[in-house]
Amino acid sequence: DGGITQSPKYLFRKEGQNVTLSCEQNLNHDAMYWYRQDPGQGLRLIYYSQIVNDFQKGDIAEGYSVSREKKESFPLTVTSAQKNPTAFYLCASARQGKTVNSPLHFGNGTRLTVT
Amino acid sequence: AQKITQTQPGMFVQEKEAVTLDCTYDTSDQSYGLFWYKQPSSGEMIFLIYQGSYDEQNATEGRYSLNFQKARKSANLVISASQLGDSAMYFCAMRSGRGSGNTPLVFGKGTRLSVIA
Q: How far apart are CA B48 and CA B39, in angstroms?
């Protein structure tokens, strides 16, 4: 079955350490996205990529970095510069299209706790 | 700029009753799409229903329907015959602009629905 895999489901890190969250999709989608979810805040966009080797900053990119070397993979690194990294992180993908009707398909998320 | 507003942080509904979750949006584009997602306590985001700005009829998907009022810029989700499994967070989202096929969605803050037996 096609889908998006995020790993691990739970991640614990000490403050000051960088950590990389994995996101892999086998849907053959061109676009991939990272969102952060905090209680009462909804989903906020961190980074997105519409094609391989290209990505754009979202609303809250500070303290995060990404790469898109392969179509299937879009890892997110939470750096020590991110002031408040504890959150639920959701990865999504969407097929290529010129119309607005393409929904995002989401992974099951990674819950990151930094102490 | 695009913006989604969901004014109901939480809602309660009796099992088998219908419930409406509110969503208003703001965009200057004529071409846009509106989406609703369900997020159970497990965390995954489940796509429920889509409405395009040029669609003349309200979208329906099983027990879900979208009450689209373009002049009011509202896209309320109606869930009929509520079930206990409908208890979840519900998010309204939007993408706007011609040729914006795979640009990100902008999300509202969500409404937590609790279905009571």
A: 10
